[in-house]
Amino acid sequence: MSVSLLILAVISLITRNVAWPQDPIPRLHLKHREVIGQRFLGNESHVEHFKLLERAPTSILIGARNAIYNISLHDLTEIADQRLQWSSTAAHRELCYLKGRSDDECQNYVRVFGRQGPDRFLVCGTNAYKPLCRQFTIKDGAYVKKSDTDALGLCPYDPRHNSTAVFVEGQLYTATVGDFSGGEPLIHREKIRTERSDLNQLNGPNFVSSFAYQDYVFFFYRETAVEYMNCGKSVYSRVARVCQHDKGGPHAFSDRWTSFLKARLNCSVPGEYPFYFNEIQSTSDVTDGRYAGRSARLVYGVFTTPVNSIGGSAICAFSMDNILEVFQGAFKEQKDIDSNWLRVLPDKVPKPRPGACVNDSRTLPDATVNFVKAHPLMDDAVQSYFSLPVITKTSFNYRFTKVAVDSQVKALDGKAYDILYIGTDDGRVLKALNTRAPESRDNVGQVIVSDVQVLRFGQAVKDLVVVHLAGEASKLVVFADSEIRAVPLHHCDSPAAATCRSCVALQDPHCAWDATANLCVAVLTKLHDNDADKTLFQDIPTGRHRSCGREPGVTVTPVVYSAQTLTGALIGTCLCSLVAGFAFGFWFSQRLRGSSYPEPSEQRQQLNRLTESSESPGFNNKSINLVLNVPPKNPNGKNANSSAENKPVQKVKKTYI
C-alpha cells in the first residue's frame, strides 16, 4: 500500500507545474589546495574574530583581539607601524572572570570604528564584557588617547553577537544589545533609542547590517514576528528605518525615536502556497544598475530557512524605491490580544503622518507620536525585485552567509550583469549571476559559475569585499574569524576551461575564449585590442557559441534531467522492484514449503519400516497404504491406552487394510 501511495504521489508531480527553481550546478569546482592567493593570519595563537571596520582605496582596517590592523590590499600584508594596540585592564578582566567567562571572552575585541575628523576617531570594543569607547587622535604618526566613555548601547558585550553600526555625518548609529545577558535589544543614536521592552518595536532581533540612504538610516535584521504570535512562533526578516534628523519627541518621548518604522522583507518562491526563506543573514551594499531596461538601485540579501528546517538558502534583490514606497503605505495593527493583525484604515491615521521626517520632531503632536509608538509595523511587505530569488540552493552540507556584488560587469555583447560572490558556512565562495536580468524581471536565469573552497572546511565566511586596484588584477577578500584571504575574481585559466566550449559554458562575463591564442582569457586583459571582439567568443545567456564547433569528448555542461524524466525513472525503478520482489518472494516461499514435507520415496520407506517392525506373521508384498491400531475396549467402554493405571499390557489386535 505504501509503495502504491508513493507512486501515486510521484505521478501527481508530472501533471502539476512545480514552481520550485532547480538548483544550478556549478560549472567549475576548485578544492582548497588548488586556491592561489594571499593570506593574513594575525595572531595565530588565538581566535581573532576579525571584523571589517573601514575600507580605504588601498587598505582596510580590521578590528581584532586587543588590536586594530591596517592591511594593505596589494598583498594583504600588515602596515605594522599603523597597528593600534588596546587591551583590557587587569581589573576589567578579573571582573569578567567573576562573571563566569573564559579567558578568550575576557579580551577586548574591537567592533566599532568611526572617523570624527581628519586626525580624530572613535573606537569601541567589548572590553572583557564591559563595553568601552575611546577617542584617539593622530599626532606625529602616533595614536594618542584622549578620553574613555561607556559604550552601553554602542558596542556588544560578545564579539559573536549580531550587531551593526554606521557613522553618518559624524554621528554613530548602532543596533545591538544594552545589557550583559543580551536581553535588551535597541537601535541607538546619541540620546535617542527604541522603546524598552516593547515587543512591537523589537522582538528578539538579530541585526545583520545598516547603511544610510537619502535622509534615512536603514537597519536589516530578523526577529520573532509579533503578527504571527496568535498562530505560533515564526521568525521574519525586517527592514527598519529612522530619520537622520530625528531629535526625539516632546515631553516623555524626548529620548525616543519618532520616525522608527519597520516592514517585512519577502524572499520566497511564489506559488499557491509560497515557500519562504524567512531568516536574513546579510546584505550587500546598494548597487546601481539597469535591469529589464530600467534603472534601479538594488540591495541583495542572503536569506535562509530555520536551522531545524530543510536546509535552504536564497539570494533576493530588493529595490530601494520599493522599500521607500512601502514605508509610505498603510500601517498594521492589532486592536486587542485576541484579534488578528489588520490594516489601519486611512481615516484613523493622524496628521502629520507618523514616521515622516520633519524639521523638528520635538514639536510633533502627542497623537502622532503615540500612533507611531503603537504602530511601527507596515501592512505591506517589501517584495523581491525579481519574480524569483536570484539564486536558490537546497543543501544539508552548507548555507549561505554573506554576499558581495561586482556590479554591472559588461559582457562582450554590451549587456551588464551583477556578479554575486556568495560565502557559505563551510568556507566556500560561489560565483553566481542572473543571466536574464538585462531583459526581464519575470524570469530568472540562475547560473553558478564556480564553487571554490577558499577557507579550510568548517570555517564560515564572515565577510566579503570586492577589490579593484589600478594596474592590478581585481580580487575578492574573504574574511573568517582568524584568517583573511584574497583570491582572484575569476578562474578563466583553470584546466576545466581549457577548450572553447568549456570556456564559453562558464557563462562568466569575466571570461572569453581567445581564438587567436587558443586560450580562455580574462576579458579585461583584451579590452585594449580594437579587434578583440572578433577573436573572443562568449555567450552569457546560453553558454554555447557556434564558432566553437564540435569537440569530441568534451562535456560542455553537466547533464541536468528534467522533473518528468526523473519521475519516469523513479516509477520504472519502483515497478521493476515490485516485480523482482514478488518473484523472489514466491521462489523463496516454495523453497520453504518444499523442505517441510518429505519426498514420496521417503514416505514409502518410512511406511515399510513401520510394517517390518509389526508382529504380523506374514509379509504383504503389496503397497501398504495405511495402518490402523484398533485396541480392544474395556468393560467400561474406554480405550485401553487412555488409562493411566499400572496394569499389564494387553495384546493389541492390528488390522491391515
TrEMBL record:
Keyword vocabulary terms for this entry: Differentiation, Disulfide bond, Glycoprotein, Membrane, Neurogenesis, Signal, Transmembrane, Transmembrane helix
Source organism, top-level taxon: Eukaryota
Record-level GO BP terms: axon guidance; positive regulation of cell migration; semaphorin-plexin signaling pathway
Keyword Membrane: yes
GO cellular component terms given for this protein: plasma membrane
SMART domains per record: PSI, Sema
Main location group: membrane
Signal peptide per UniProt: 1-21
Biased composition (Polar residues): 603-624
Location in the cell: Membrane
Stored InterPro entries: Plexin_repeat, PSI, SEM1A_sema_dom, Semap_dom, Semap_dom_sf, Semaphorin, WD40/YVTN_repeat-like_dom_sf
Molecular functions per Gene Ontology: chemorepellent activity; semaphorin receptor binding
Start-end of Low complexity biased regions: 625-644
Transmembrane segments: 566-588
UniProt-recorded name of the protein: Sema domain-containing protein
